Amino acid sequence: MKLFNVYPLFDITPLSAKDVYVYDDQGIKYLDLYGGHAVISIGHSHPTYVKKLREQVSKLGFYSNSIQNPLQEVLAQKLGALSACEEYELFLCNSGAEANENALKLASFYTGKKKVLAFNNSFHGRTSSAVAVTDNPKIVAPLNAQHQVDFVALGDLLSVEEILKKEQTCAVIVECIQGVGGLDESSTQFYQGLAKLCKQYSALFIADEVQSGYGRTGDFFAFQKHQIRPDIISVAKGMGNGFPIGGILIGPGIEASYGLLGTTFGGNHLACAAALSVLEVLEEEQLMKNVSEVSAYFMEKAAQLASVKNIKGRGLMLGLEFDFPVAALRKKLIDTQHIFTGSSNNPKLLRILPPLTIKKEHIDHFFQALIKELDS
What we know:
By secondary structure, the chain is of the alpha/beta class. It has 11 helices and 14 strands.
């Protein structure tokens, strides 16, 4: 049997990784400034992460959600405290797409409505309703397209209200910083206005924090800069530092009932052990403070490059925009400089999503390498 060939692959085979470095089968060491799509939050193979997973798998790796799992309770308490979202309730699943799927489903159950409002250039996942609210027709199958979704430009409150006043929309879903779309972010005025309109027209506000959450922006969640409280918050990626886990934080007033949501693997013992290790390291190593400090340093260095036309994003969810397509540059950085970076829907944007443990010396290394490639 062959693999179903849906991924264009770089000719690199990693065998091991430590903190911000990845090592391949040829003995080459790569600086990881992409973190496997912003998944690696506390660094590859962090000792706390390895220890907690090893201890848990030696005792119990999995049982279904039909029994008591105290690790889920501990995770909910610690996540609520560290994120300042104590009043929310937690439903655990396996991925960002599944988190958004459950968020949208819950909003439809709660409001009794079936339409969703999403934004141009959005990305929310590849499952049924999650891909329908993703602004990329190439990956939306006819089956997915049966979902009723309105798309408007990020920042356009007038169009949002025109749609919401029809009283058919169960939810508005938004990335406060767009990831795959190219790191666009609107104003505080827009996000606060969006929250107000959702309340006014009885639609739930879903903040997709799958990529931007878990300290990546310097705040625990990207929406917190704008002083809003979404009805539902979706999380994944950095939550497990590579172990598959996702979830939704569900705001007050949305009541649970048996069978409303469900999952086989979500919130299993190993996933909870991984997620607890991430929260422990985030707090003990003050990684959100590190994010803010390293981000400021990165922006200072980037501002010195005349070829960089725009610096986008916040914290360690960053992008360097040039006046030329970056595909060749990105390949050179991998092949010649041995540095992983990311792409986006914007062909001129180089995305930077490193582990939150990254230091200023790694940023120096990156800019020295970048300057070499730009000069050549």
